[in-house]
Specification:
The protein is mostly beta strands and about 130 residues long. The protein has an eight-stranded antiparallel barrel. A hairpin with a 3-residue loop joins strand 3 and strand 4. The protein is globular and about 35 Å long.
Length: about 130
């Protein structure tokens, strides 16, 4: 069960850059807006609400629900940022809240259905 949406939080704000060819691009997280441009999609200045956040010293995590409906160029409803290393972050885009909630279910995550597609990129926080 997800927590109620919270106000924007600047503790995660900054620029994240993709690592490798498939994850090239950048995600810029500012107070209340997200801009994510990658090889596979472009989400420009999308407003968000925080659905979940974890601020543990070892593993920070942020789940954002995009306020505007998905579009052809930005097909995501939910963006998850999870700290993997000191500077490395796993960033994933889900097409729906249902896709996010079912992300660990093998039958869901291995499905070829387009609505279950998830873009996952390893990114480095540069500022």
């Amino acid at each position: 069960m997800l927590a109620a949406p919270a106000a924007a939080d600047t503790r995660f704000a900054g620029r994240f850059e993709g690592t490798g060819r498939a994850c090239s691009g950048a995600l810029i997280l500012a107070r209340g807006t997200l801009d994510w441009r990658s090889t596979y999609s472009t989400c420009r200045a999308r407003r968000y609400e925080i659905q979940e956040r974890r601020l543990d010293d070892d593993a920070k995590r942020l789940v954002l629900r995009l306020v505007d409906a998905p579009t052809r160029t930005c097909p995501y409803a939910v963006i998850e940022l999870e700290q993997a290393t000191t500077y490395g972050w796993n960033v994933s885009g889900f097409r729906s809240m249902q896709a996010y909630e079912n992300r660990t279910q093998p039958a869901w995550s291995r499905s070829a259905l387009p609505e279950r597609y998830v873009l996952s990129s390893l990114m480095t926080k540069v500022d």
